[in-house]
Specification:
Elements: H1 12-21, H2 23-43, H3 45-61, H4 63-78, H5 82-98, H6 100-122
């Protein structure tokens, strides 16, 4: 094998391309990592688990309201200009640091909503 053709590492251009293509995935990974770490430091895991469960229960009983709210939030954010999206992203990361259990409440709401969507789409047909 030629030593000249051997490639080491990843170029900055490749990293930038990947980050542009997968910006939401990277953002949410950072958000969840920060929320997980800071909930253990400041709040304790029990409160976050409790709020995730409460969020799921709320979403099971009111899936259409949670769906409507999530859709309006996502549509409103994605229709904004880039700088506004960056500011909202920074605010979300600050919430993940200082109010980490709210991130788990939000995850519970979306988890419960997703479970109800799956049950309604793949339930017994009859």
């Amino acid at each position: 094998m030629d030593e000249e053709n051997k490639k080491e590492g990843v170029s900055v251009k490749e990293l930038e391309g990947y980050a542009k293509k997968h910006r939401f995935e990277i953002f949410f990974c950072i958000l969840f990592i920060l929320a997980s770490l800071f909930t253990l430091i400041f709040w304790g895991a029990m409160l976050s688990i409790f709020l995730a469960g409460i969020g799921a229960i709320i979403a099971v009983f009111m899936p259409s309201k949670v769906e409507h709210f999530a859709h309006k939030m996502a549509h409103g954010l994605l229709s904004k200009e880039g700088m506004t999206q960056i500011v909202v992203g920074i605010l979300a990361l600050i919430v993940a640091i200082f109010l980490a259990p709210l991130v788990f409440l939000w995850l519970g709401l979306h988890g419960g909503r997703s479970i109800m969507q799956i049950l309604h789409t793949s339930g017994p047909q009859g």
